[in-house]
Amino acid sequence: MFEQALQLLKDDRNSFRNIFNEYFKPLCNLSLHYLEDNDEANEVVQAAFVKLWEIRHELNADSNLRNFLFTLVKNNCLNILKRRQILLKHHEKIKWIEMHYQYESLASIGGDFLEYNELKEKIDISIQKLPEHCRIVFEMSRFDDLKNREIAEKLGVTQKTVEAHLTKALKILRNDLKEYLPILTVISKILY
């Protein structure tokens, strides 16, 4: 293993090819375990080998290439998972912000539409049916436009607790209102 590092220090392409052949499949399996996407897993592993080649002159003769590659792949996979989580969180928030604005648009046109009255009533009922803490957190977030940190401070709870209540509320509301979402979309297109 340490001999491989020595060969890389000498820019030995055959040694690099041997390292690639030895570790590519196990690294892909590791990456696939984290990412559950073949193409993405392969890209992470290929990037790890590119990095190894780029820093080959910084290696020591006693460098453990196996540990280096596995750690690099694992860390890159974890970074991708964090980015996915952030994107998902923002996507959910944007969906509900849009729904909030659509709801406000419906309220501004008055009660002329049967769908509006039915939808408004359904939304109000669904919000009132939420568990008390979820409802309070949801209303503070969506109708009072408070940030999670501000809600946590006002209620004397942690931000994680606020996030948990919001997640639960959104899941319940999404399920309760799923049949009305097409109406919201159509009406918002007419108004804008």
Please state the average pLDDT score: 80
Number of domains: 2
CATH superfamily of the largest domain: Winged helix-like DNA-binding domain superfamily/Winged helix DNA-binding domain
Structural class estimated from helices and strands: mainly alpha
Helix content: over 70%
Tell me, what is the CATH class of the largest domain?
Answer: Mainly Alpha
Radius of gyration equals 26 Å
Strand content: under 5%
| CATH topology description of the largest domain | Arc Repressor Mutant, subunit A
Gross morphology: elongated
Describe the main β-sheet briefly: none
Please explain how this structure is put together.
- The chain has two domains: 2-83, Rna Polymerase Sigma Factor, Chain: A, CATH 1.10.1740; 109-191, Winged helix-like DNA-binding domain superfamily/Winged helix DNA-binding domain (Arc Repressor Mutant, subunit A).
- The model is unreliable at 187-192 (pLDDT under 50).
- The longest helix has 44 residues, at 65-108.
- The chain has helices at residues 2-9, 13-35, 38-54, 65-108, 114-129, 132-142, 148-155, 159-177, 181-191.
- The termini are far apart.
- With 192 residues, it is mostly helical.
List keywords for this structure.
Arc Repressor Mutant, subunit A, 192 residues, mainly alpha, single chain
Provide a brief overview of the structure.
With 192 residues, the protein is an all-alpha fold. The chain has 9 helices and no strands.
